[in-house]
Sequence to fold (235 residues):
Amino acid sequence: MPARILLLETASRRCDVALIEGHRLVYELGSVDTKGFQHAEVLHVYLQQLLNETGCAISSLDAVAISAGPGSYTGLRIGAASAKGLVAPYDIPLIAYSSLHALAYAGMEVLGDSAHRATFWAAMDARRMEVYSALFDGEAKRLSPDAPQLLEDEPVLSSVPRDMLVYGVGDGVAKALSGFPGLQDLEIPYASARHGAMLALDSLSVGQLVDASTFSPNYLKAFRAGVPKLGLPKL
Fold:
């Protein structure tokens, strides 16, 4: 029987849930809030709707898989807490995969049959002139690790020839276009939950699981709270 996996995507401004059975997408639901992060308000609403519409019981899942970062500190934290709450009562395996790697699969989906000739640069906005980035080949095989990158110092990875055609995926790509003439933006700002399907299936097949009790998202850098803008006196 094909593996039944629940997928959660909360690493970006997109909040998305999906259910797969093997390679078949059974159900997907999500939305994007371009002005903020809606995960706390809508994630469990989407989860409940998925369960109601599919008739799926949490106890029947073979695994829960989460896009584990890098990305939004708030979104990742909410997604991780939700995933832990889902797997703990039934001792369901928990899978964590790279948010950047999921973006590479989103690029493959768009390019279709021509994807095997492509190189993908996945870049997620990390504010100012910084991104989280990684490079993947046309089959979404990793060519570099996930890492924070200052575009002012290095517009793209130094290992990429400047005349090579590279497809950019993620909401951090637009900031790098002026510094890398060969970069072509596929205009895929966010991965959806379904884009983690192959990563989840591959991890489950080889037993690459995470311990739900100790799991922490891959933030890549420490969280820094913003300065309040409430006109309060400085102490």
